[in-house]
């Protein structure tokens, strides 16, 4: 594991932003269940878990579009909205049946709170669903803010959600770090002017080490020690 350096933020971080899917949680099995239920209802073959995993990260509507395209179905806007609504409803009824926290997720979120740093989850997943999942795993109370894909800002990889989180947390971008797993996370962080740590093994179309993040870690259980080391730097 690479040692923590202050290049991940221009100063000791005041705020930590977490991505959700692929970072704090492995939600791909439940998402795949919902997507495949709708594909099969249309007479299309289901997609493998790894295929769905590679489609996650740009919001549920984009995932539905990609899933149908992978089966050769080019949906018009109305049909896409209809399928998206059904996938959303199915998924909302199976949010955490197969979903699990990624290793170290709880310790990472709690460490941010214990160090007195501000914290938020910033995700392209709808805010209501995100809050339900975080509450189910006992993490919601440890966070200061949740911003979702329907919270009123352009989604990642645009920087708007991250900048809104910084503003609401009272932290400048240069003292904020995003912990994520994907190219969309890194792109949004770079555009927002904040630091970015990527976690290996998330939902990314390329190995995290190849994307050029400030730091890449194996699992979130490395985060508490990294943050404490940063706090100790004079």
Any overview of this molecule?
By secondary structure, the chain is an alpha/beta fold. The protein has helices at residues 28-41, 49-53, 60-70, 77-92, 105-114, 127-136, 160-169, 183-192, 223-232, and strands spanning 15-18, 25-26, 100-101, 118-122, 145-147, 176-180, 195-199, 215-217. The relative contact order is 0.20.
Structural features:
6-stranded parallel sheet; 41% helix; 234 residues; single chain; alpha/beta; 9 helices
Number of beta strands: 8
Strand order of the largest sheet: 5-4-1-6-7-8
Estimate percent helicity: 40-55%
Report, as a whole number of angstroms, the end-to-end distance. Answer: 23 Å
User: Main sheet?
Assistant: 6 strands, parallel
Quick rundown:
Helices cover 41% and strands 12% of the residues.
SSE topology:
Blueprint: E1 15-18, E2 25-26, H1 28-41, H2 49-53, H3 60-70, H4 77-92, E3 100-101, H5 105-114, E4 118-122, H6 127-136, E5 145-147, H7 160-169, E6 176-180, H8 183-192, E7 195-199, E8 215-217, H9 223-232
Parallel strand pairs: 1-4, 1-6, 4-5, 6-7, 7-8
Antiparallel strand pairs: 2-3
Helix pairs in contact: 1-4, 3-4
């Amino acid at each position: 594991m690479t040692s923590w350096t202050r290049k991940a933020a221009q100063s000791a971080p005041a705020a930590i932003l977490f991505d959700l899917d692929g970072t704090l949680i492995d939600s791909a099995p439940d998402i795949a269940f919902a997507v495949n239920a709708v594909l099969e209802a249309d007479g299309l073959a289901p997609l493998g878990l790894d295929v769905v995993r590679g489609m996650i990260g740009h919001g549920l509507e984009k995932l539905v579009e990609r899933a149908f395209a992978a089966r050769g179905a080019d949906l018009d806007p109305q049909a896409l909205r209809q399928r998206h609504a059904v996938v959303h409803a199915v998924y909302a009824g199976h949010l955490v049946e197969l979903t699990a926290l990624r290793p170290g997720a709880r310790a990472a979120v709690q460490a941010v709170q214990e160090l007195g740093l501000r914290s938020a989850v910033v995700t392209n997943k709808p805010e209501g669903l995100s809050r339900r999942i975080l509450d189910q795993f006992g993490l919601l109370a440890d966070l200061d803010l949740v911003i979702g894909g329907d919270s009123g800002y352009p989604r990642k990889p645009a920087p708007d959600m991250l900048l809104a989180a910084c503003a609401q947390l009272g932290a400048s971008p240069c003292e904020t770090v995003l912990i994520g797993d994907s190219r969309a996370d890194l792109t949004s962080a770079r555009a927002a002017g904040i630091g970015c740590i990527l976690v290996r093994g998330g939902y990314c179309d390329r190995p995290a080490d190849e994307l050029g993040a400030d730091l890449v870690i194996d699992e979130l259980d490395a985060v508490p020690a990294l943050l404490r080391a940063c706090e100790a730097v004079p």
